[in-house]
């Protein structure tokens, strides 16, 4: 299937090289019954045993997903990372399916709507570790693969968080390699080869559209950039001190406080500070950082008022929809909140209704489809419409 839609996925690793955004022609319209469970059985895999290969394809709602964290959508394909079994999964959005509607908006199981098709494991063997470079990603071990992005050639870029590395899975061969980090936590290497550098719990990666990968080097309180052409790594934001930034300061000269999630568009790098309980925007031209939302204090307040005065509790996921509204995964409040960037307002869009969340993490968005959310400790993926 060839879709005519270009996606505003701001986990949007790719919004810069997708040169225009149009309405998606996936053969479906947003479901008035959303939100609903899209994948996962609600239970984590019962065994820590090594998975057998080749993997078995199953319905997404029949696939146990142990703590789904990162989510990526590219056209009609979806990738999901799971941290309980340290794997990456791939599913498809069925372009011919029509969603059901409901007057009540009650959440329903995804099986009744037919909006997805087969899910299969594409990386990880079910065991925790750091092995497999140079071989099949299906035989490799990972340690909390927190986030996955897909480049223009279909290669996967993975934040292998507790191994303190960034890894790449080749689209043609499925061979995995480390492209940043030496596997030891720490901070070093700016200006040199990324594979000799040290990272500390990198949680988020995003493609910058200019031949680089941006890395949320979370426990180093920095954002770093890997040049995929030269292999060189450098810091582009943060001094290493765990404090809130100064609004309007040069990003390289101010502090960050636990950068946990990144999103990008042509003008900005959007940053969720988990420990800083706030959202910031780095201007790509000027290199200056600006306050978007969150007072910095931990809490659950501010809906209907100024976003900059609201409180959050450990935000861990970001994505921009097609109306310039930033969806924020307010993890420790078990909510999804929406920021109207231009109006400086915030509201809650998921978590207060009949579908309750439990420490959600990653989120991705596609025009005409809506968003997918890793409802992590409920061991499922939720489909919603902003």
From TrEMBL:
Keywords (A to Z) from UniProt: Repeat, Signal
Span of the signal peptide: 1-18
UniProt name for this protein: NHL repeat protein
Residue ranges, annotated region (Disordered): 37-64, 96-117, 292-315
Pfam family, one: NHL
Biased composition (Polar residues): 43-64
Gene3D superfamilies per UniProt: TolB, C-terminal domain
Transmembrane segments: none
């Amino acid at each position: 299937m060839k879709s005519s839609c270009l996606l505003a996925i701001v986990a949007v690793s790719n919004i810069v090289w997708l040169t225009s955004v149009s309405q998606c022609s996936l053969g479906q319209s947003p479901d008035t019954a959303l939100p609903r469970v899209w994948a996962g059985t609600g239970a984590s895999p019962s065994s820590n045993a090594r998975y057998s290969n080749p993997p078995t394809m199953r319905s997404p709602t029949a696939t146990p997903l142990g703590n789904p964290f990162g989510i990526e959508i590219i056209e009609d394909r979806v990738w999901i990372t799971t941290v309980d079994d340290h794997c990456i999964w791939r599913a498809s959005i069925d372009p011919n399916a029509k969603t059901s509607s409901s007057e009540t908006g009650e959440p329903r199981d995804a099986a009744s709507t037919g909006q997805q098709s087969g899910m299969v494991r594409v990386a990880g063997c079910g065991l925790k570790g750091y092995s497999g470079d140079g071989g099949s990603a299906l035989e490799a071990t990972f340690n909390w693969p927190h986030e996955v992005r897909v480049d223009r050639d279909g290669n996967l870029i993975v934040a292998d968080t507790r191994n303190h590395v960034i890894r790449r899975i080749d689209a043609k061969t499925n061979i995995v390699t480390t492209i940043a980090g030496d596997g030891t936590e720490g901070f070093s290497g700016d200006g040199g080869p990324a594979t000799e550098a040290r990272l500390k719990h990198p949680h988020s990666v995003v493609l910058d559209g200019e031949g680089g990968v941006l890395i949320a080097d979370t426990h180093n309180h920095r954002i770093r950039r890997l040049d995929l052409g030269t292999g060189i790594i450098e810091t582009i934001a943060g001094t290493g001190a765990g404090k809130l930034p100064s609004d309007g300061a040069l990003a390289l000269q101010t502090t960050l406080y636990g950068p946990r999630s990144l999103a990008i568009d042509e003008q900005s790098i959007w940053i969720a500070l988990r420990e800083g309980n706030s959202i910031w925007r780095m201007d790509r031209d000027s290199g200056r950082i600006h306050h978007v939302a969150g007072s910095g204090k931990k809490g659950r307040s501010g809906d209907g008022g100024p976003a900059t005065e609201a409180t959050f509790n450990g935000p861990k996921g970001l994505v921009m929809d097609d109306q310039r509204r930033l969806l924020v995964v307010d993890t420790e409040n078990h909510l999804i909140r929406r920021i109207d960037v231009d109006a400086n307002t915030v509201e809650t869009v998921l978590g207060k209704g009949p579908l309750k969340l439990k420490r959600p993490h990653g989120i991705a968005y596609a025009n005409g489809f809506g968003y997918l959310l890793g409802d992590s400790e409920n061991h499922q993926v939720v489909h919603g419409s902003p």
